[in-house]
């Protein structure tokens, strides 16, 4: 999934290339998933003739602000991307050429590449005195979103629900430390929580923790002030460096984990110095870390932490029982189904962290081979309370 730094790269290219240019025409595929709440033809009618006067970004959302009418608020989803094609109207060196663009994956460079992109959902065409420019949003998996938002998009959903943006308003260290230590979740899970730090995804979180030398499973409520300071510093460092390099991983420093984490399952995941890269799931995502450096203190598994543990809950199923005639053979099946079952089953409470929120999932443990069942037929006899404990 494109993270904060990749989306910032898209914003900067659009800002540099299309700011102040009028949209000559619009083409949009009818797709209620990619365009939630937008009716057919509405995209074309509301955007044609408008000009982009500013671009913004918060977390993983990019914003194109128009001179009038609604703004475009977009999310790239898992595999979505913005492509730009620029063609000169006037010949250069005696022939028509496409303008070069430093935008990684943003300008078609392969002559065999088909334009528009195969899975395009939106195309905006612009005309300048010297060139014809087309912006296309491509999304094969349809997990991205494009919304038309009236008013100030930074104060409306979905952006208004997000946490701080590490590039725009990273909290001061003292406030950041309090925000971290008052939680009781793995630090990797907290960094992925978009209501905490908007735009931080899997690889950014792993990179930050690697440079801070903090284990991804370290619980936040037992992090020291010094450890929080290291996370605060490296969060700013990783996001700013990656953004300034246009999210081009080929230019990342050689000591970054990102460059060496992709050999999982092939026995090749190690740093240049030979340190092994381990993989483990924290916060519902596969985390890459160097166990020799990022060590998990024993105190992080203290009794204070109450997440991801086994609990015992009562599971009861009751079916109403009617008085039946014991001599009636036709009621034999009814006797078998009119039961009251009482027992206890152990279930495991697991915490799964997704990009937008933390969700508790209850998964039943394996069923026992035999379960004691008490069948009772109501009659006029006095009722007697019975109790039973499972597992004894």
Automatic annotation (TrEMBL):
Keyword flag Amino-acid biosynthesis: no
Protein name: Formamidopyrimidine-DNA glycosylase catalytic domain-containing protein
Catalytic activity: Hydrolysis of DNA containing ring-opened 7-methylguanine residues, releasing 2,6-diamino-4-hydroxy-5-(N-methyl)formamidopyrimidine
Biased composition (Basic residues): 337-347
Any one GO molecular function term: damaged DNA binding
Residues covered by region (Disordered): 323-347, 366-392
PROSITE patterns, alphabetized: FPG_CAT (PS51068)
């Amino acid at each position: 999934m494109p993270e904060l730094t990749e989306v910032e790269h898209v914003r900067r290219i659009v800002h540099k290339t299309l700011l102040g240019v009028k949209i000559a025409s619009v083409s949009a595929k009818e797709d209620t998933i990619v365009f939630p709440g937008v009716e057919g033809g509405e995209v074309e009618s509301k955007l044609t003739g408008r000009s982009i006067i500013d671009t913004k970004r918060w977390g993983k959302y990019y914003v194109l602000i128009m001179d009038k009418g609604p703004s475009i608020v977009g999310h790239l989803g898992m595999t979505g991307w913005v492509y730009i094609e620029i063609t000169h109207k006037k010949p250069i060196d005696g022939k028509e050429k496409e303008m070069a663009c430093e935008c990684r994956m943003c300008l078609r460079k392969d002559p065999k590449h088909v334009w528009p992109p195969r899975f395009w959902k939106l195309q905006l065409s612009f005309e300048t005195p010297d060139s014809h420019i087309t912006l296309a949003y491509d999304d094969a998996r349809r997990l991205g979103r494009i919304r038309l938002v009236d008013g100030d998009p930074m104060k409306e959903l979905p952006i208004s629900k997000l946490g701080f943006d590490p590039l725009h308003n990273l909290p001061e260290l003292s406030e950041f430390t309090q925000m971290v230590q008052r939680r009781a979740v793995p630090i990797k899970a907290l960094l992925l929580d978009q209501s905490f730090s908007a735009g931080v995804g899997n690889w950014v979180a792993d990179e930050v923790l690697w440079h801070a030398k903090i284990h991804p499973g370290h619980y936040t409520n037992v992090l020291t002030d010094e450890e929080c300071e290291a996370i605060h510093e490296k969060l700013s460092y990783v996001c700013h460096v990656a953004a300034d390099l246009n999210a081009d991983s080929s230019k990342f420093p050689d000591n970054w984990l990102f460059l060496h984490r992709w050999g999982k399952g092939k026995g090749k995941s190690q740093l240049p110095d030979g340190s092994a890269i381990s993989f483990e799931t924290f916060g519902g995502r596969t985390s890459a870390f160097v166990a020799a450096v990022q060590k998990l203190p024993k105190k992080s598994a203290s009794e204070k932490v109450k997440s991801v543990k086994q609990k015992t809950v009562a599971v009861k199923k009751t079916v109403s029982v009617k008085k039946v005639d014991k001599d009636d053979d036709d009621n034999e099946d009814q006797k078998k189904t009119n039961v009251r079952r009482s027992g206890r089953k152990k279930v495991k409470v697991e915490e799964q962290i997704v990009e937008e929120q933390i969700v508790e999932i209850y998964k039943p443990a394996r069923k026992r081979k035999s379960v004691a069942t008490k069948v009772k037929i109501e009659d006029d006899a006095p009722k007697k309370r019975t109790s039973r404990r499972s597992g004894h």
